[in-house]
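User: My collaborator sent over this chain with a note saying "see what the structure looks like." That's all I know about it. Can you take a look?
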Amino acid sequence: MLVFCCILNQLVAAAAIQTSNATQLKAPADGCSDSPDWLGLKLVKDDCVGTVNKLYNIEVLEHGRKRYEFLGIGAEAEFKLPKMKTPRRYTVGACTLVLAMMDIFKPGELPNQPKGPFYETDIATYSDLHFAALNVELHCVVLRHGGGYGAVGRFPRDRFGDRELFLSTGFVEIKADTRSGEYGSIGVMIMSTESYENRLIPPGISPALTSTFGLPNVLNINESTVIRLDS
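Assistant: Without extra context I'll predict from the sequence alone. Here is the result:
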């Protein structure tokens, strides 16, 4: 119950930061999975909570509401924004949080997978991604003891138009001014570190803290810069 209340409080606080418009939490579990492909031998809830904290400590505290263009493997940049390569992994013990472009997944590979289209690049802030991770943590990990995912990105009517649109962050929708795409193209996924699903996602970057000064809830992070799952 304490974990549930803490996550709920974080969601409320994150929603207040995200937008001054009304934010509605949808019914849970569209992207949740209790399959062994996601859970492996065991999904450790406390470790999964730790991965979301790790994302916050490493990325949100430094980058916050700054917009980035997230790039898939081999993708060419389309916007004049700072870049972030994907996949990006945040691992704590037996649980891993992955940021990966939705276009790398085959149709039907993810639970209740949207049809797309998905793009090789998309625009988001780390606050958006953290908010999506909090929703997956609450709805999938805490309430259903499983893994799961949400999607973040821009929702315009045309590829290069600037409009006020709906930004999808997992199980919430936030009104936002952003650019391009038909569906959220950045996946935010929580799963067992040793799971089959984690091994399907190509090797990528494993960001680490460069300084622990002034950071709350800092975890003991020893990962190298790049994770290789086939070794």
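A starting point for your reply to your collaborator: Residues 107 and 113 are 7 Å apart (CA to CA).
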